[in-house]
């Protein structure tokens, strides 16, 4: 086969491989069928772009599986980062959203203003490094590895610091709610 793929060969190759690639994506990303479909679409688009740009692809089936593998790994990383994000903040980094755990308090009404005040108090109590850690992770969507590089620490140390910080914030929020 020539190194350059003609349009008709491109369609034939994709038709031969697409069902197996789709199956691979569904197996690897079984928890998220939408993610598997996204990866399949991205593989197809990458293949189409490579063919249209005249890229040399000596072994197109192998190339497709390599792209599939790389995109699956990338999707795993995206899904992992999404799972790590237990707390969401607004653009001012002050409003705690999914962190608040309210016990059965049928006789007590906590308003958004109260929650905002709690969040402000908690954010004010953080050190500059802790505030930067939260800002980098939640606002800038940086990975713990990237943050570790900025702070000059190991990824493990930053991950532990993030975990402890989230745990401390949860505890502070719950204490404020209980004492309300």
In short:
The protein is mostly helical. It has helices at residues 7-28, 33-52, 60-84, 112-125, 128-139, 144-151, 155-178.
SSE topology:
Elements: H1 7-28, H2 33-52, H3 60-84, H4 112-125, H5 128-139, H6 144-151, H7 155-178
Helix pairs in contact: 1-2, 1-3, 2-3, 6-7
Explain what the structure shows.
The protein is an all-alpha fold. The chain is built from seven helices and no strands. The chain has helices spanning 7-28, 33-52, 60-84, 112-125, 128-139, 144-151, 155-178. Helix 1 (7-28) packs parallel to helix 3. The longest helix has 25 residues, at 60-84. The protein is elongated, with a radius of gyration of 23 Å. The termini are far apart. Residues 86-107 have low confidence and may be disordered.
Number of helices: 7
Q: What structural class results from the helix and strand content?
A: mainly alpha
Radius of gyration (Å): 23 Å
Note poorly predicted spans.
86-107
What profile does the largest beta sheet have? none
Cα distance, first to last residue?
A: 74 Å
H/E element order: HHHHHHH
Summed over residues and divided by their number, the pLDDT gives a mean of 78
Residues in β-strands, percent: under 5%
**Count of DSSP E strands?**
0
Shape: elongated
Helix content: 55-70%
List keywords for this structure.
about 180 residues; mainly alpha; about 0% strand; elongated
């Amino acid at each position: 086969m020539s190194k350059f793929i003609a349009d008709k060969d491109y369609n034939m190759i994709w038709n031969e491989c697409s069902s197996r690639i789709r199956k691979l994506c569904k197996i690897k990303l079984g928890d998220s069928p939408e993610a598997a479909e996204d990866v399949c679409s991205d593989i197809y688009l990458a293949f189409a772009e490579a063919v249209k740009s005249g890229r040399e692809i000596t072994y197109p089936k192998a190339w497709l599986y390599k792209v599939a593998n790389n995109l699956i790994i990338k999707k795993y990383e995206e899904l992992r980062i999404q799972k790590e994000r237990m707390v969401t903040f607004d653009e001012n980094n002050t409003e705690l959203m999914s962190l608040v755990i309210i016990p059965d308090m049928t006789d007590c009404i906590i308003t958004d203003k109260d929650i905002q005040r709690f969040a402000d108090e908690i954010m004010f109590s953080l050190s500059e490094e802790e505030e930067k850690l939260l800002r980098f992770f939640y606002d800038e969507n940086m990975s713990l590895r990237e943050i570790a590089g900025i702070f000059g620490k190991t990824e493990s140390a930053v991950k532990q610091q993030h975990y402890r910080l989230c745990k401390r914030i949860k505890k502070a929020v719950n204490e404020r709610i209980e004492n309300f």
